[in-house]
Every structure is written in structure tokens, then in C-alpha cells.
Amino acid sequence: MDATVFLQQLVNGLSIGLVYALVAIGFTLIFGVLNVVNFAHGEVFTVGAFGGLLVITMLAPPLWVVLLLVLLIGGFSGFALERLAFRPFRRFADEASLKSKAMREATLLSSLAVSIIVRELLELKFSGEMQTIPQSFLLQSPIALGPVLITDGNLVIFGSSALMLGALQYILFRTRVGMAIRAVSNNVLGAQFVGIDTNRTIIATFVVGSLMGGIAGIMVGLYQGAIFPHMGFEPGIKAFVAMVMGGLSSPGGAVICALIIGVSETFATQFVSDGWKALVSYGFLLLTLWFFPSGIFATRKEKM
Amino acid sequence: MAATLAMPSASAVTSAATSAVTSAATSAATSPFTSATPLLVLDQVTRRFGGLVAVDSVSTSVGEGELVGLIGPNGAGKTTLFNCISGVVPPSSGQVRWRGQPLAGMKPYQIARLGIGRTFQNLRIFPNMTVFDNVSVGAIGREPNRPWSTFAGGRAEAARISAVSEQVLEQVGLAAVAGELAANLSYGKRKMLEIARALAGRPQLLILDEPAAGLNDTETAELAAFIRRLRADGTTVLLVEHDMGLVMSICTRVVVLAFGRKIADDVPEAVKRNPQVIEAYLGTEEDA
Amino acid sequence: MARHLNRWLILALVVVLVGLSMANKSYLNQVAITTMIFIVLTASLNYVTGTAGLLSLGHAAFFGVGAYAAALLSTKAGWSFWFTLPAAGVITAAIGIVVALPTMRLVSIYFAVATLGIGEMLYVTMLNWVGLTRGPMGIRSIPAIELPGAKALGLSSTEVSMLAVALVMLASLWAMHRLSHSFYGNSLRALREDDACADAMGIDIARLKLEAFAVSCFFAGIAGALFAHTTGYISPESFRFGESILVLSMAVIGGLGSLYGSVIGAVVLSVLPEALRELGSFRMIVVGLVLFLSILFLPRGLLGEVSALDLVRRQLRRAPAAGGRRRW
Q1: Is B59 an 8 Å CB contact of chain A?
Q2: What tens digit of pLDDT does each residue of A29-75 get?
Q3: Across the interface, which of C113, C125, C295 has its CB nearest the CB of A240?
Q4: Domain C2-317 adopts which CATH fold?
Q5: How far is B214 from chain A (nearest CA, A)?
């Protein structure tokens, strides 16, 4: 593989990896705060994409407005998701039941149910076919960077991802909300003792995580040109895998692993046909779990 | 004077244990307090968690027929030491030996099958199973428990498990609620269930993890009587406990931990007067 | 006595299903057959997830392994159904063990994720290993089930299928019942309730997990073989993650940990979409809603390990001294 192809694939791999990373962060944050797997997270990705499409077809505003509106749509769907599928199961306020096994099972399945419903509703409205993004909005104009050909889509993805990750870093470490999120992830009871409103924090986590997922969705739509109701499934699974690989409690770890997944997937297409490339990510997952049963960047928790 | 008497005998115990242990790997040295063989020997067991030394070179032994109490203020390292014994957490250095055999690298279920039974401080009964089924799990742990025996050849095994479970339920007084879901039991009954489940494994050494927690004086007295009966029936008991009263009233020997180190290892009367022990517990214990 | 109650329930179920077939509506026949196959599949998932507590998110893939094993053995090697059936079970169990071995030391959520990955990998393999599985084109012309002497009795091919499927279903349910309602079953439940504690009680949890997984995959393979021989054509599309979730829903609605619950859950989620056929595309939405509502209001499903049926059972039991135990 010569240098040009290598660089090309690297760029593509990083792009898709960043998309997975944005989805993975939301997943990880929600898991950290509630200890549940949000099965409907892939759907906020899809909703972001379709929401963006609606905005484009109805208002046809400049790109940055589209992105902004999708941020709002994503955030709102996160809020709605939390109210619908997670809140009704937090009947008691103590930690034991907040992170209890029974509640986790229940919300796993309720978020699953919501994801089925959302997906089916989208299919009803838009049919299972691919919806194409209007030509003028597509981010597929090539830009030559030396021998490497990238599209403005890549630039938008890199740019907005960097922005979002930076903003997240700021939120988590420089704002009260972020501190609350970190506190609740660490120790729910302790957080309550110092007066943190866990419910509000959980809502905030969902909103932040989902708006990132939504943006990822519309960016993929603009980059690849077509969207469809089931598009959230694969990124959702891969985000899940990235989260587990990275060690459940580490958003940074999830990002790195998401990038690894994206890059390795892209490089794999050099050697195997498209159909097999999914095997690469899952193979990675299993390999990682084999060597790091608690994820790569897991904080060592001693069993007491 | 009692205080100075306590010190040498404590160190005599440790040095006796250490020298007994360093002499031969499968030493049959006797326990310092009875003429019975030591069942469990802790040889300079140390456990570190990062920079924190939870257990610092603790050496002691539990001889057959003894009723040893392991006490210490919160954070003294009792639970960690306990976990080192039961195989949940391996010692950073030092050795735990059962009848001379090192337990290093053994999984918890293997250690249990050697004859060491245990209860959990935070009552880990199986909530969605009946009382009888809970107890049976203790007995099942000692049987081969292969899937095909449910179709053929498992009658003898099933009969054994049934018999032991029923007998143990009688022993702890839970026979009347055998069909109840464990989740529906009161706190006191759950405690007895926890003990019953451990007893169903017919342990030679039963390690009780803070069994008096949450019990009032009457219940504690009943528990004390129960443990004495256990010992009379031939079970060696290691009692990890915070409640001084219980330990002092029934134990033949008391080992005291503070900040991960053993500060006393003697008969209860001597430990009561040990100045280091008094200091460690100052202001935090009722009159022993 | 209450145990017999449940046996009558299943018998009644089968009678109803078989009776429906006699009503000569071939469409109902197919529904009945599909329902019975899903009963076996759901029971196998309930065994590993509800009883042993190991959340398996890739179960449809093992269903597929069994189906492909049966399809290939019958179309390429000419085996009859009665040989492909056990072979499919054994092969699926073997593959299940092989892929599960590396995951045994993972705890709960990691294990679930690993099963998800395994399921997807198996699906991708089915889709892309065209040399073996013919990929998306699937395998067609899988021979139907044959019963010697059926022609003499004047039974149609569909009736033979129904009978055979019912027989296999009953045998499978019986086997899983024996395994879970025994002291061995108690050890599985201990695994579910608190595996670290079961470990401390002397139970070899690593081996037990493997056994539970193997048994579950065996019956998933059996269900797959039934599926292959009764539909005549299989393709990877039937064995995706969505199907895994459907089976999981059946187990959950029926009640995790309850074999009879699996039966009911499978019936509900097999019959309901058919009954709602008129609703057309709203079908899956209703299914999703049913799932959601049942989680909300019936957290233990219909017959989960604590249930109305259990209470009745306890009342019908004799005095606790004698009856507080099961007779094995």
C-alpha cells in the first residue's frame, strides 16, 4: 500500500471513527451516570439525520444553521428519551435501586422498545428506502491536499468533532453541570449528599450525549449522501463496542477505541470485501475483551 | 501487670506460628492453645491496594475445635484479610495455608470445597429462590452437580442434598419457612439463612462475617448460644466481628487487628486488658 | 398438583394448535408451526438468560447455525430430518462453546456485549461465506420432514410437519424442564442471583456457565433445524440482531426464569403480529408498545419467578414441613 492510499484511508478511517466517537461519548456518559445501556442511542443518530433532512427540505438554511438546529433536535430527543424510557423506572431515589440489576434490565428493554417504535415510525413516514440529501447540501466536493483527496465533508467532520469534543471537555471540567455529571457517575449517593440534583444531572447527560449523537447523524448524511431509518443500528453497536473496549467509565477511552474501530474498518476494506469488514470491529471487540476483560482503559476496581 | 503479661504471650504466639511454619511446608505443628492440628495458617499475609497497605504481615492460625475471634476497628483490614482467606483477593505477599496446603491461586469454589464455609456480612442470600433452595446451594457445592444426573443416576446425590438441607434447616430453626421466598424473610431470619447455607456445605471451618451486625442484645445472645452449639458439634469457627461483647463472651482466642497489623493474639481476658487494644478501641466501644 | 396444572396448559396448547391445523387453513398451520419453533427457541434463551442469568444478545445467530447445519446436511449430504435434527443441536452447541469459552471470565454486561459481537460475527459469516452458505441467496429446496408410515395414515405433508414439530417441542421442553427444576437448576439460579456468592459456596461457576450456554445453543440449533425443514428455504435475513431481540422480548414478556412463561411469551409475540396483520405497517409498533408496557407494568413478565401462578402453587402445596421442598 503506497503512502497516498495509506493517507487517504487514514483520513477516511478517522472521519468515520470520529462519527463513531461522537456516538460513543453519549453512550458512555449515559452509562456512567445510570449504569444502563441505552439501546435507543442509535436512534438519536437517525433522528438527527432525518431532522436535518427535514430542516434542509423545509427551510434550506446555511450549513451552520442546519447543524445548530440538529443540535437542538438531538438534545430534545435525548430529553424525551429520558422521560419516556428511563425516568419511569427510577421509582426510588437511593443508589441501590438506581444502579440495581433489575432496573438495568428493565431500562435495557424499555429503551429497546422505544428504539423499535421510533424506527418503525420513521419507516412508516419515510419508507425503508434511502432518502437522498439535496445536492446543494452534500459535502462531497473534493479538496486536494497534496496527493491526498479529501472532501469538505471530512473537514466538516474533523472540525465539528474537534469543536464538540473540546466543548464537552469544557463542560465536564469547567462547569457545574459537568461536575455534577462526573460526581453522579462516580458516586450517586455521595453526589446527592452534597446537594446535587440527580434527576437534573441525568437529564443533562442525556441531552449532551444525544445532541452529539444527532450531529454525528446529520454529518454522516451529508458526507455519504443518503440516509435511511435503520442507519442508527451499526453506529450504535460500534459505539457500544467502543465504550466497552475503552473501559465502561472512560469517555476518552471510548473515543480512542471508536477511532481504532473506524480506522481498522476502513483499512480492512483494502484486504477483504465490504461485507466482511464488520467482522473486523467485532473481532477487535472480542480480542480486546480477551486481553482486557474490563476494557482497555478501565480503572482497576478491586472487588471488596 | 496484666498488660505486660499480655505482650509476651502475644509475641510468643506469633513467633511460635512463624517458626512452626518456616520449619516445613507441611508442618503438623500444633496450635499453641489446643493440642489439635492447625486447620488454617496465615503466614505473614500482606495485601496492598496501590499505596495503601490494608493488611500488614499478619500471622496467626486457627486450630481444630477453636472458636477464634478476629476483631478490630473499622478499616483495620478484617474484611480484606477475610477476602484473602476465601480466595476473592490474593495476598500481595505471604501465604494462607489450609492443613498445610497453600491456597495460592485457588479459586473461591475450590477453597470452599476444601471445607471452608463462609457467610457474608451484607447478607448475600438468593432473593428469588425459596429458603430451601437457598440452603440446598450450599450442599450442591460439595457434589459433582453434572447436568446429566438430572436425567439418570442422580438420585443418590439428590437424596444427600435434600437430607442435608432439611437437617440444616432444622438446626437453624427455619424449617417452618422452607417454602418461603428468601426475599420475604425478616432480617434475623435472613441471617440464619445465610449461616444455614454455609452449614449445608458441611464445613470443617466456618468463617462468620460480622454475624451480630444489626442484632439487638437478645438476638445476639441467641446467636452466641447457636455458635457455641456449632462448636460443640465439631465445627471450628472463625468469627470476624466488630461487636466486642459477642467475641469476648464466646471465643476461645481473640486476634486483634488495627491499621492492618496484628496487635494482639490471646485469650479474651488478656486481650481485654491489652493497652494497645484499649487504645485502638478508645471511645468507640461499649464496655466489653 | 399445580405442576400438573402447567403440564396440562402445554398439552392444551398443543391440542389447540394441532386442532387449528385440522381446520384446514394452511395459513394457520404455518403460524402454528412457527409458534412452536419459537417456543423452543424462546425456552432455550430463557434457560441461559432467565435461569442462569447470562444475558445473550446474539441468540438468533445460533438459531441460524442450527438451520444452516440442518440445511447443508440434508441438501449436500442427503441426511434425513431425524439425523439432521440432533446433528444441528450438537453442532450449534459445539460452536456455542467455542465462541463462549473466551468470554467466560467476563462479567454480566461484558458478556452480553460479547454475545452481541459473536451473534453479529456469525451473521456476517452466514452472509459472506458464499462458498458454504450461498450467502444472501440462501439455501432452498430443503426437504420436508418425513414420518415413515405417514402416507399409510393419510396424513398430509403439513400435518406430518406439525406432528413432528410438536413432538420435538414437547421433548425439548421436557428436557429443559428437567434441567431447570432440579438441584442442578438451583445451581443455575444461584449463578443468576449472585455468581460470586455461588462461587464461594463451592460451585464451579466457569464450568456451569459453559454448560448453560451449551444446552441453550443445543436447543437453539434444534429450533433452527425445525425451521429449515418446515420452511424449505433459509437465508441470513432471518437470523439478524432484530430476531435476537424479538426472541428476547418473548422471553421477557413471558417472564424470565419461567419455562412456561417462555411458552406464553412466544405464543403472544408470534400470534399477535399475525392477528394484527390487518394493521399492516403498524404491527411492529404495536409489538414495541406491548413490550414497553409489559416492562413498565409487569417487570417480571407474566410468569416470572415470582408470579400469580407461583402464589397459587404455594397455596396448593401441603403443610410446609413436608411440602416445602420439591421432590426430585
Answers
A1: no
A2: 888 887 777 888 989 999 999 988 888 888 878 888 888 899 999 99
A3: C113
A4: ABC transporter involved in vitamin B12 uptake, BtuC (1.10.3470)
A5: 19
